[in-house]
Amino acid sequence: DTWAAGEVSLKLAGALAALKKTDESRSVLETALDELENKYANENLDPSSDPKRAGLMMDLYRELASADIRGGKTNDADKLLTNAKRYMWLPEVINRMKSDPDAAVAKFAKEFDLISGANSTNGGPDATVRRRVLADNWAAFYEACWMLGKQYPTNYTALPVDPLELFRFRHKLPADGTIVEYMLTDSSVFVFECGPDKSICRELGVASRDIDTLVSDLRKLLKGCEESLSSGIPVPPISDWNGPAFADIRKPLEGLYDQLVDPISKDFGERRVIMFVLPKELSGLPMHALVSTEPGKGPRFLVQDYEIGYLGAGMIEDFIEDGKQGIDPVADRLAIF
Length: 337
Known about the structure:
The longest helix has 23 residues, at 208-230. Strand 8 and strand 9 form a beta hairpin. This protein has twelve helices and ten strands. The radius of gyration is 25 Å and the shape is elongated. The chain has a six-stranded mixed β-sheet with strand order 3-6-5-4-7-10. The chain has a two-stranded antiparallel ribbon with strand order 1-2. A two-stranded antiparallel sheet has the order 8-9. It has helices spanning 2-18, 22-43, 51-70, 74-83, 90-98, 103-110, 138-151, 153-157, 163-168, 208-230, 244-261, 316-320, and strands at residues 112-113, 118-119, 131-135, 177-184, 189-195, 198-204, 273-277, 291-293, 299-301, 307-310. The protein is an alpha+beta fold and 337 residues long.
């Protein structure tokens, strides 16, 4: 039994480490992991894996990484734990290492980036922002949500809809629809995209402060229009989308499209319905009015290419109901502003 042999190897490695036979201990752990890795990966297609076997894998990874760190091989520990970042239990391994009595192991764990899978102290607002796919299938999506929730608990729990709710309803999502939910942290922006046959989690490669600036600029412009109307000063309708009357408001709309929509637009494929779930930082943002621009052409609003809707807390079940009514192009009308 490969799993029973792994448990024996773990105990043997501990005994060798106690005898200060560090190299022999590491060799036993590496051999055990090599034998179990492919077997575990094949059996872990579903996130609800066997807890006993998951526990053994966690212990092997933790012990081998800790041995690497104590031996001064932090790059090897980085590589090892990066290999484990696809597993939903990695945050628990890192948390245990933070409490390790060895100061070097604890320090390493506290500086380890669960999302990038790298040891780094660059977690502040001036850190380099990465653009990458964290998950592109349902099992990986589940694990990415779990890890993001562990690393950014305040931001994640504040989301209007827990992305794992999208996982729960994955078999009921409309064939022509995609749900898009954003999460802003102090330094980055993550997006969760879910359709009936696709689930993607991305880090967009944009600083959240840049989004905040664009949203603030747009809200100021819209507030100015509202104040004019409340004062009895009419806001003249825009007759030329390329004219100066639209120039000021066009800039943040284009910027937000470039930052929030363009990086994921190819994921939409042939789907015609996009339902946005907006966090409080983007609350009230008119996603349907975001603007893309091609050279030599005028602005094109997102709503010209897709049916756009918005979901909030408790609205997922309404969206997936069979009787939901789509947009009637004859009877329904939409004003951009």
